[in-house]
UniProtKB/TrEMBL annotation:
It holds the Pfam family PseudoU_synth_2. Belongs to the pseudouridine synthase RluA family. The lineage of its organism: Bacteria, Bacillati, Bacillota, Bacilli, Bacillales. Keywords: Isomerase. This is Pseudouridine synthase. It comes from Paenibacillus aceti. Residues 94-242 form the Pseudouridine synthase RsuA/RluA-like domain. The gene is rluD.
């Protein structure tokens, strides 16, 4: 999917922009005017503009402004495994579905293909010199959409948006117990668990963490909830729901039973972000995992048997 001509037209390694007639500063010329426009209107990262200037990656031709935003990049990870399902893609961004049980990138502990390997496989098959970098992470056994930047410009803009908490992530989870409709927000700090290297816990000395909760459905001793993160602490949803007395189904690390599922029932339902070039708000949805319907049917069946 290419950008609309009004926003910019890709021409090979370059993008061609049409900023229109620019006011020329007193102590400069058209080039200086273009640089001001790039910083103030396009909000291009200064670090990238400096690099483009050094590499002669900025060109003016009449009322056209060209930036070399798409230089060939070698793959950062070996292209191994089946390419993931693509939920959204254009010249700047890629969003793919991460299945449960797949790690984001290699960690030296497993030889199984990671999501990074599978994303590399997309571009190896196409023969494209693109090396996407992930903008956020998901736990190994959490499924859902993962956002990647396909070039340095997108990476700098999206990393900054992530740090400003401008990328919205919405999750759904099956949790143990009947969640009260009054439980709408969990605002508890999260820190490391001194007794367990992998685990986090609610701790007064931890970093502030806020999770918004919406009850969607109740079943036999279980609930389906929608969760929106205001912060992004490690294991935040799992820690907060366990602290509230409702560990995720299958989440043994935080007190959940594995009778129905051997890993946490947590799925990224949607991801919303501003496009790094156009500023357009893009919402990408990821359908619930197929096995969840079986889980819900099983829980509803148990409820009917007990009536």
């Amino acid at each position: 999917m290419s950008l609309k001509k009004a926003a910019g037209q890709r021409r090979g390694e370059w993008i061609e922009l049409m900023p229109g007639k620019l006011p020329v500063p007193e102590n400069g010329g058209r080039y200086e005017a273009a640089m001001i426009w790039l910083q103030q209107e396009l909000m291009a990262p200064p670090k990238l503009l400096k690099q483009l200037e050094t590499e002669e990656g900025i060109k003016l031709a009449g009322d056209r402004l060209r930036l070399r935003l798409f230089p060939p990049r070698e793959l950062s990870f070996a292209p191994v495994g089946k390419p993931p399902v693509i939920l959204y893609e254009d010249d700047f961004c890629l969003v793919v579905h991460k299945p449960a049980g797949v790690k984001i990138h290699p960690d030296g502990e497993s030889s199984e293909p990671t999501l990074a390997n599978r994303v590399s496989a997309i571009y190896a098959e196409r023969g494209e010199k693109v090396a996407p970098m992930h903008i956020h992470r998901l736990d190994e056994y959490t499924s859902g959409p993962v956002l990647y930047a396909k070039n340095a410009y997108a990476q700098l803009k999206l990393d900054a948006a992530m740090s400003r908490k401008e990328i919205t992530r919405v999750y759904v989870a099956l949790v143990e117990g009947i969640v009260s409709p009054k439980l709408t927000v969990i605002d508890e700090p999260i820190g490391r668990d001194r007794h367990h290297n992998q685990r986090r816990r609610v701790s007064p000395s931890g970093k502030r963490a806020i999770t918004h909760v919406e009850l969607l459905e109740t079943m036999n001793q279980a609930s389906l909830v929608r969760l929106t993160l205001e912060t992004g602490r490690t294991h935040q949803i799992r820690v907060h729901l366990s602290f509230a007395g409702h560990p995720l189904v299958g989440d043994a690390l935080y007190g959940g039973s594995t009778k129905l599922l051997p890993y946490q029932a947590l799925h990224g339902e949607s991801l919303t972000f501003s496009h790094p070039l156009t500023g357009e708000r893009i919402c990408v949805e990821d359908p619930w995992p197929e096995e969840w319907q079986g889980l819900r049917n099983s829980l509803h069946s148990q409820a009917r048997l007990e009536e």
